[in-house]
């Protein structure tokens, strides 16, 4: 096998469920599979940025739990959203102080949605933190992030599995979705109805891109975890890790992606 094998990993959004991506990355790394490029939306973009910056998957989980990411969100006096993300940006700067795509150890692409034009926007150069905030900016909950003249919200609105930045660049693409949707016999209230409808919509645009992936990982049971339930982070990490090991055991061909030339990328 070529020593120049290029492997892309696309990570979906999904709130705290995105912690499961870190378990996936740990399992892949343990068998010698390391990405040469990562793309992500929302939680996937955040997990991807931390990983690409050189943090080990376990370190990222620890940071998420210890900082309690969601407590940095505070009310905004605005008709455009009920929360604002400036404090989240301050948190990012603690761990991504360079604020520069070029300073990452592994190339990263981040997806966001241009809400005015109704188009997906991909970022892979220049400032890093503003695109991360835009990619995870849930419309109606947060004020849009303005970059240049673009008003940006969560990338998952239009693309919750951004494989496009990997297309034509990577020899193999691994897609990872953390929004497994179980059957629901009882919609309890309006909140659960809206949340389920949003996840269904995001899953639709994920699965429409599934054919672009050489391998597609989706840990079962993630739907039972709330998208803001930070206390379940260790369980989510374990779910992603164990599912990936199971997939590798059932599909040993994935081990052919182990790439000796990627040692310089190992973190």
Summarize the structure.
The chain has 267 residues and is α/β, with parallel strands linked by helices. The protein has helices at 19-30, 43-52, 57-67, 86-95, 129-135, 190-207, 233-250, and strands at 7-11, 37-41, 74-75, 81-84, 108-114, 119-123, 140-142, 145-147, 150-154, 172-176, 215-217.
Word description of this protein:
It comes from Algoriphagus aestuariicola. Keywords: Hydrolase, Lipid degradation, Lipid metabolism. This is Patatin-like phospholipase family protein. Strands 1, 2, 5, 6, 8, 9, 10 and 11 form an 8-stranded mixed sheet that branches. A 3-stranded mixed sheet has the order 3-4-7. By secondary structure, it is α/β, with parallel strands linked by helices. The chain is globular, with a radius of gyration of 17 Å. The C terminus is likely disordered. The protein contains 7 helices and 11 strands.
